[in-house]
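Section 3.1: Structural characterization of target chains.
Under the original work plan, the team committed to producing a structural model for every single-chain target entering the pipeline before any wet-lab resources were allocated. The record below documents one such target. The sequence was received from the expression subgroup and is listed exactly as submitted; it comprises 166 residues.
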Amino acid sequence: MRSIELVFDGSTDSLIRADWARLQAAGLPSLAAHTSPSNSPHITLAAGADLQVNGDGPWQALPMDITFSGAIVFPAGQGKYVLARAVLLTAPLLDLHRCLHHDLSGALPLTLPGAWTPHVTISRRIPGHHLGTAMDLLDLRLEGQCTGARLWDSSTRAISPLGGMA
């Protein structure tokens, strides 16, 4: 699987990691437990096993201000969920996403314009009965800045900077 991701400036990255740490300290599933150097807070713009970037990308739009607009929950198996920060859809973010997909092939349908839900994952596979506790630990009123983009290739475990200050 390959993905193209927006990454954050240092202070936004630290705030998201603080969410991870609060969940972990409370004994809840958290991305803080995933200590790989490639694990950092990000917004996935596109993903797919056959993802191919056919152009330079819209990285001149970076840095870009981002506003988080609360929490979002996705199903992740029986009784388990993904807990994430929702990202407010703004014209600049939608433009960047649309321009990227203009020169892209192999993206999964859920990452295409019109179907994409921008978010930053906080916890994977959290039991449903712990969602309320987890959400109470998060400070969901947060603004930040995306300063770079990267390509993540899970088969080679390689990160390649694409633009900005990744």
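The chain has a mean pLDDT of 91.
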